[in-house]
Fold each of these.
Amino acid sequence: MIEVFVADSSYLCREGVIALIEDCKGVKLVGEADNSKTLVSKIGKIQPDILMLNYASSAFNFEDIGLIMNFLPKTKILAVTHSFTLEEITAAIEAGVTSHVLLECSREEISDAIYATAKDDKFFCGQIVDKMMRAGGSDDLSKLAEEIACDPIKISTRELDIIKLIAEGNTNKEIAEELFISTHTVMTHRKNIMSKLGINNTAGIVLYAVRENLIDPGKFLFDQGSS
């Protein structure tokens, strides 16, 4: 079970993140704080796996990151903010942040960030990486973006499930029944997947699944009865 502590001065933002955590399998909320003093007094006793911190909210700052890193080195910090500047991202990473997403990111992207951070993998949302890569004249930021090795193309967990099922030869109806969603939702996901991957047919989805080891190439056979 991944234990997560949430720190944000905004009640609405905090509750939104908590609601997302409660929907994540294998993830448990173990505490929350709306200011630095409460954060420090609580988190030392709990020692969570991840601290989801909005360092840009009124009651927190970069010093909180350094403080947590000093006395809880095993706790990973996942920053979740409304917006960002390149200077803030650089400062956050230098302070010890493992991952960084925005509050406007999709539910899937934020949950993926939680799972990745728990495994000590760096996860930065596509918007952040894209801006860092476009930082003209800043070798440090471009290098930093390469180091976190984050692909701006983000495939959600649900999309990966659908890619795998498509590659295994399932129809839209069969996928809908397997995942307990509507056929229309499957078709929408299929369109989004092809748009993200820059492909326009099922064969492209199959090739992606093989390349990413989502299916065993040896088990995949095209329907020999089709013409």
Amino acid sequence: MRTRIILVVLLLGISTIPTSQAGAPERLDEVGAVFGGVQINATSSANITLEFSELPAIVEDYTATWCTNCVEVEHALDDVEETNHMQQYHFHRFISENEDPLGSQEGDERWIERYEQRIPPTVIFNGTIQQVGSVPASDSLQDDYNANLQNYLDIGSGFSSLGWIPDEGNMSGVVAWNLNVDMSNFPANSTIKSSIWVVEDLAYFPDGSNGENYYHESVRAIIELGENQTGTMEITLPSAYDDNDLEIHLIHEVILPKVIDAEEEDNSEDSVEEEDSDEDGVLPSIGLLPVLALTMFAAIIVQRKQQ
């Protein structure tokens, strides 16, 4: 009997732990699209404009240098890139990270704010479709990713422009951007936030435990430009992990209006009233593991008393 109780408690604990091994494609309805991808080498002055029809699909990959199943995901992405117009962005784990040197604080904060998780490997297509893990939902990851890329963004016509003038030493410079877009193609009250993603084209890091030595297109920093569709800004670039191969990429993210339904609003008001009336009687929350431990301990005590 005691063994059964312990097994039940352990199963309850395990069931709450997220897995990074498998996951079917999931549509993200609560966040807006991600588009853009105009890029310039950070060592060169340039001004580039692309029509929306010329922009690549934006593929974000959350990864780590210790993540072995991330390697399979990234090889599959390389395969589908051969037949699709897409741009990969690899976000390496940074917060509480001891091994991987290629991530950034702002990169992790963005993933937490936008996607509410940091599970490697996770791949996001155009900001609208998420697929977690390395086990395919169909015959192969390549088939999954090709299907995900067929969900084209309907953002109308327009263009995205990026200009860049580096200072001497290439560690800072002036960036100029211009977004021509018809907001009627997006949900009412949406806004668009632009940013510069600083990307390291290739980094050599043989000390990871996933067996890889070279890492491509790592996002080393995110520099917010705000919601102005046109502007200039002086920015400072991070140091490259090695060599001198940083790029600046112009990315646009659709910010959807926050929707609060009537039931949620009523519950929020009720919660505030309860907090006001019972402020002195509120108990602090405790974590899952202490609860499971207490449950198991209590069950064993009851069993002993029954014997």
Amino acid sequence: MLGLPHMRAGAEKADTSPVVSEPPSSSNFAMDTREGRVGNAFACERCRKHKVRCVPSDTASLCQRCQKARVECIEHVARRRPAKSRSDGHRSDSHTPNRTREFDKKLDKLSAIVASMGPSASPSNLPSMATLPSQRSDGSQHTPTPAPAAPQLAPAPAVLKNPILPAPDVNSGDSLAFWDSIDTMACVGRLDPVIRTIGLVHMQMLLETYRVMVDSFPFVPLPKDCSCQDLIHQRPILMLAVLTVSSHDSARLQTTLSRELRKVVMIRVMNGDKSLDLLQGLLVFIAWHHRYMEVQSISISMLLQICISIAHDMGLEKEANAIRSPLHKDNPREREIKRTYLGCCFLVSNIGLMNQAKLQPSSFSSTLRAQASEIAVVWEHKSDAVLPILVDICQYMEDVNETLRDQPEHALVARSQVKRLSDKWESIQAASKLQAKDFKSLQWLLLAARIRLYRTASAVELVDRDTPWVNGFRLSLRVNCLRSIETFLDNSTQMSSGQYEATSIVDWLNLASTMTNLSQLALQMLPLPGWDPNELQIVNTFEYFRDQLCSRMPHPREASDVDNDVFERFRRTTAVIMTALRDPLGRGSPNAGTFELATGSGRTVSLLQDLPSLKPNGVGNGTERLPSLRQINPSFDISKSDFHWRFLMGMN
């Protein structure tokens, strides 16, 4: 070791022979400068702490005090002011920061390069870079730098002609300013660096993706002339929600955005914020919540309760039901408020019907139906045409729920009510044929309403079931329920992967509930004359539609997204249900050659773990039944009313 600078001072004084000094290298410049100084400026850390003179010892790299104390002698690196640079023979100002001088040098070099370059003969047709997340869409064109010859690419559409490096303008920092504002609102930790990589071009792409997805939830549409800059400045919470729901290409990014949105929403709610921006952002976040649902996060029921509270405090119900003059009816702000309130009622009604223990379903009044009709007449957005039909379907399902309650009923009364509700469903279907062709979610909701009718009617307890014709009526209800399920699933198999990407939580819950109902028809229906699940081949029907749906649903783009992907959870859960259907009594091995059962988490569980221990004489061994699937995995109980929620979570 060379030792500390103050320890080499004695050696330098002893050696008085002239030495030809060589110019120091840039790496050793600071060290050589310290070696030339004499004094206490470079005393070791311990001597500086005790404010005493640091005297070098005979041992290299140790002073006398550290040697006596038998401790490590730590060299102190002195802070020196860097030498002032000179450019063009003039001294720069001593107060000018180093970063400014370096920036000036870079500008001088760039200016020299640009001055030495000649103008290009003609601007080349460069491909559009709209897919780059860090670039910003800009309409201005610039002359590109001459590049080596490359294969010709197909020219991009005229609408998407963007330069590779657009010139910066006043809006170039909008994305960073937006993320800084979100970071300030979150107030918990720092924003994930992955989120900050989303630039304006990426934001605009996600905005266009949301415009396609909004057909599945047409209550928060965006104006045609609305850009990401407009949402950043006017509706930051809605903008963050739009980015969250439309970033389904990356499960990691979507999960990260959803967590940040939850933090921002909770802080805004605790601060007493009651704004349309917050309510719309929450509705959009809930509408596709199944894509980023987490067990530890706040539940959908709690989020809906927050929406109801905000809407009530803002008086949206009074504003939506208020009688206004024809001049006020043309106000876009009024229509936006009405759509938002309708969307809140829509989510509460549909999700509440499937989770009545935690959320009371909302009711649609005739006034809300009239408001939806007024919005459809103006037809400001394409999706406005389906709002009255969605309200009709919600009112229909409320009618089914109130008419066919879980209480004893006479068979004649039940049959007449089922006939009335069936005719009402036929009229709604006939009135919505034109809109159902363009909106797949409308077809799903309409077919799910028919399944609810026959499923609820078949569960009604009839007081006069001993009447001869009652068994035939009950059998017809089960058969109609099975046929309605098959129609729903057949309609689902005609969807493309892109349509599955845009599916809302209401549609996804209906799909999960339909698959659950089909499995229940095979496993848990009470015996009935004429009803034979094996003859009806319900298990084969389930397997066929499962294979069709799994083949059409998108696959995760990255291996790390498998656990969080909603479609992979669907594949895992239906595979476990398929195992239960193949071996409902748990008497044999579902793997047909082993005594192991594949669970949803990828692990295998032995079917023999619950069996009693072996007896020496062998008496009694082999007479006990193998444990059922429900005993192995208690959460796998399709008879529970909340099983479709476990279905969404992959039974985690």
